Structure of tRNA N6-adenosine threonylcarbamoyltransferase:
Amino acid sequence: MRILGIETSCDETGVAIYDEDRGLIANQLYTQIALHADYGGVVPELASRDHIRKTAPLIQAALREAGLTAADIDGIAYTCGPGLVGALLVGSTIARALAYAWNVPAVGIHHMEGHLLAPMLEENAPHFPFIALLVSGGHTQLVRVDGVGQYRVLGESIDDAAGEAFDKTAKLLGLDYPGGAALSRLAQQGQPNRFTFPRPMTDRPGLDFSFSGLKTFAANTIHQAIEQEGELSEQTKADIAHAFQQAVVDTLAIKCRRALQESGLKRLVIAGGVSANQQLRRTLAELMTQLKGEVFYPQPQFCTDNGAMIAYTGFLRLKQGEHSPLEIEVKPRWPMTELSAISS
């Protein structure tokens, strides 16, 4: 079985082909960073229009990369939600049209389930059950995973996601878009302990997150530094970035430790765009060494939005006979707990 996967939930156009016997055999990705850089963030209408321009050429490129034709494709998987409604409609419409024309089944995939299962693309894939930390620009969740579609949300952000807080703080520091990655690079030059940020919601029971207060704390810290220095020096910016990043990483690690201890599980999966953050990876690796457990990540290329995770997740669901109706439906908001479980 060969599945074509299409990802268009936000500002990345991803197309990939997953082969049941050979694994991932094509992976094409186009990023819209340059398109949105002048605006300091994603402009939904521009994102949708660019997906229209790029999706079909990327599908053709993926087929060429795999040495296949349309006749070799057995099914199509596409991101159905959550995400930007216009962007989702582009990918869904193209996927449904191709499935009809090629006479193959199609299935709508949950974007965050794709992220959650991305580590399964690695040779050293985790076994169920495990705790997953899904951390991106739009989501921060701790999920107990007992199988594909067997998800129980243990905690989530009650306001800003971690990646969103990174981006907003980077903007306060005057960093270029995309801000989260720029802030992480700047933080490497920061001096520890010059600034101390709070670790929100770690002094109370539970596994929920809150990062909007950290953004406010960063804004106040920046204003105070400007009052003292006039214009912020690059070193002060780096020191603030370091303190902010450490606060986010420590908060995520504290909640992961709590989730693992409460569940009794020894496997942790981290996925989503922020999972590429090297400080987070080091901290969670140290945590799992202390807990005598294992931590799993996708490759960096599969941390951000990509078609490979959609193709793989679509393969699992299509192989079980699941498919979506011909009508085009997208779900900009879609709780992962609504997904159906599939047998292993």
Q: What stands out?
A: Residues 234-263 form the longest helix (30 residues).
